[in-house]
Sequence to fold (249 residues):
Amino acid sequence: MRTISLPKPLIAAVLGALALSACGAPHADADRSPAAKARPAAASHASGAEEAEMRFMELTARILTDCPPPPPPPPGAPADKGAADAPLPPDAWSEAPRPEDLPGGSGPVTPRYGPGETPPGTPDADGAVPVPFDDPATAAPDATPARPGTAAQAPLSEAERCVGDRHARRITEALRKAAPADHQALRTALVGLDYPAARIHRLPDGDTTRVDLRFMGGRAVLDITGTGPAPTVTLASEDTADTTARRTP
Fold:
């Protein structure tokens, strides 16, 4: 999907609205939101698709206020580091076996070089570096590129799941009444719900319409399969086929 670019004054106004909304700033309706108040000043820089994008961001900001804040980390949990980066206790290695206790570790170690020879990797008097003949050959790196889509994908955050589920519920209820007969009617209905046309895509299967909900590095999308009064609305990650929620009227 192509990236949607907006003028800087418009982005600043909308980001301010989202920041206040995420902190729980009260507002009665969209017309009283900070972004709505900033719209006259930014209107000279936005028109058409940009205005539609601004309305979508305002909609997302309103939905975000209905989502609970993320839970605080448990007591004693590192704030900026994962569990793997946490320091180990002083006695963490007290139970580690000694080298001489390992199988084959008893007895003197037989050197791999004879008297008068130098250890592997150590230059001799002439500057040559001897290499043992029984050294295994260095394995050549695998030149086969990884297939796209095989890497593990990051799951949706709790905020994305909450906002995406509320978008799905909103769309499901509206489509139950509108009952669009085909993709074009579905697209028109979504635009009327303040989802920009630039965020609505028909997938190659011909039966699925994707609504791009991504914002500020997010991955959430909605896949709408079918038309009529009972399409299936699925919340998914943009870069994986794994779904996280489904809604069928």
User: Anything to note?
Assistant: Residues 158-178 form the longest helix (21 residues). The beta strands are 200-202, 208-212, 220-225, 232-237, 243-247. Residues 8-64 form one domain. The helical segments are 8-22, 34-42, 49-64, 158-178, 183-192.
